[in-house]
Amino acid sequence: MNKNSNAYIFIYASLMVVIVAVVLTMANLSLKPLQQKNIRNEKMIDILSSIGIQADADNAQELFNKYIKEEIVINEQGDIKGVYRDGKLVEGETRAFEIKIKEELRKQKKTQDGQFPLFIADKEGETLYIVPLLGKGLWDEVWGNIAFKDDFNTVYGANFGHKAETPGLGAEIAEPKKDGKKVFSDQYDGKKIFNDAGEFVSIECVKGGVANQSKIAPEHGVDAISGGTLTSNGVTDMVRDCLVNYVEYIKKNK
Amino acid sequence: MSKSEREPLFSAKNIRLLTTPQVKENPITKQVLGICSALAVTVKVEPALMMALSVVAVMGIGNLVISLLRKSIPNRIRIIVQLVVIASLVILVDQILKAYSYDVSKQLSVFVGLIITNCIIMGRFEAFAMGNKPWPSLLDGLGNAVGYGWILVVVAAFREIFGAGTITLPGVGTVNVLTWFVENTSYVNNGLVILPPMALFAVAVIIWYHRARHKELVEEN
User: What number is the average pLDDT over the span B168-193?
Assistant: First the structure.
């Protein structure tokens, strides 16, 4: 057959596409369970890290089961829509762990019926509430988890992650916690999200440093990252926009 | 070709296919290809190493596949065929990294996908694999990928040591290497080294040194 004839080229191209499609589909299907396990493990590691538990891929599941006593789903009105306890769904339809915050935030914006996850942890007798966060940084998504003490006002710990922030600048929000070194997320420890009058004020990243201004009270502000202003603003917005959905729940259950 | 005439697998000519791309014909320093990824993944050693390994895999297998197909590929769609081969190999590498080395795949993120646009690969397919037998093509692919890879790792080691004061190796984790200087002198890590421009400077210095050593590479004008 003439190699330069149209028929040959068409047959060649079609055959090639079919073979490639089969190979890639097979690879995708056979590797999918492992990949999904990795993603779940990472989510557990992130949640645990906000309450100061260092886990790795091997013990994530085990530690998660040990510390996270209850997962609940709430809506903006503060109603409980689902409860997951001791490995089974007690109430509602979805487990908080499976909720995709991105979709819920979009739903919330459109029709006000978003449902948000809340993790309740028990660390050495202390009850901690963990709220997962998701927002937009400078280049792409930023996310995090913020843990509160049992007054649901004082921050116990927080951690952040990002997809594509500038290394050395915005990416510093995800600097892993180290002994003896204060990183960005450590600043959140002990901050408060409600003021003395009980109004929700969130926690803001302050450009130029909290100590050098008087607009934001020190317990509601952290130092923004120098050179990472837009990422810091993204974190401020994320913390506020996610936490605002929990305000009613907190007020009801205080 | 009868058996007696067949070239030994590791003849001097074949060995040269592996060795010349390391220094003399290095794809980065001589041909100045693949610079984009050389800037992007060289902040830490571990991702640079994984990137290098991924490129070795894609390029070795890719060159082999193209060489096996070379007589059947219609000339008019040869670039498309080459692209399909690269793209599918890259997707395979990406999937495998996501399954077995999730942390690294997160760090490499889009750059694994960008192997597709790594011009070294297309360059070798077009320049070598389309006109040579499978075995030399495999060697040529591996040689060029390793030549690309070691530059990547050298630049990454330089940037990580002077930018962050650490070395991150797979299986070992992050090791502080400049602790003594940080504790006993007023030494601070250089933030510029972490930023992409420094990779350009580092690659440029390597190219400069390389051309100074090999005068025949210097262009006339």
Answer: 78
The two tokens of residue A71 are 């997962």
CA distance B99 to chain A (A): 4
Contacts 24+ apart (CB under 8 A), A56-65: A57/B102
Nearest-CB residue to A31 (from B43, B96, B195)? B96
- What burial letters (b/e) apply to B163-187, b meaning 16+ CB within 10 Å? bbbbbbeeeeebeeebeeeeeeeee
- Is the ipTM beyond the 0.90 threshold? no
Q: Provide mean pLDDT across the span A218-247.
A: 91
Measured CA angle at A130 (ends A124, A136), to 5 deg = 150
Q: B92 and A24: CB-CB below 8 Å?
A: yes
Instruction: Say if A22 is an interface residue toward chain B (CB within 8 Å).
Output: no
Residue B116 pLDDT grade (very low, low, confident, very high; cuts 50, 70, 90): confident
Q: Write the CB contacts of A242 (distance below 8 Å, at least 6 apart in sequence).
A: A101, A105, A116, A131, A132, A133, A134, A135
Chain A, chain B: beta-carbon pairs less than 8 Å apart? 59
3-state secondary structure of A196: coil
User: How far is CA A242 from each of CA A74, A155, A165, A229, rounded to the nearest angstrom?
Assistant: 12, 15, 20, 20
Nearest-neighbour CA in chain A from B54: distance (Å)? 17
- What pLDDT digit, counting tens, does each position of A169-220 carry? 788 888 877 666 788 889 999 999 998 888 899 999 998 888 888 888 888 9
**Helical axes B12-19 vs B134-164, angle rounded to 10°:** 30
Q: Tell me the two tokens of residue B158.
A: 């330089």
Model confidence, pTM: 0.73
Please give the Cα distance from A99 to B209 (Å, whole number): 55
Percentage, residues of chain B above pLDDT 70: 95
CB contact under 8 A, B43 and A167: yes
DSSP E strand boundaries for chain B: 166-169, 173-176
What pLDDT was estimated at residue B5?
60
Please indicate if any CB of chain B lies within 8 Å of the CB of A167. Answer: yes
Average pLDDT value for chain B: 84
Q: Is the pLDDT of residue B87 over 50?
A: yes
CA dist B166 and B159 (Å) reads 9
Q: With a cut of 70, say whether residue B109 has pLDDT above it.
A: no
Backbone angles phi, psi at A182, to 5 degrees: -85, 120
Q: Is the pLDDT of residue A136 over 80?
A: yes
Asked if B92's CB is within 8 angstroms of A27's CB, the reply is: yes
Q: Nearest by CB to B98, from A20, A35, A168: name it.
A: A35
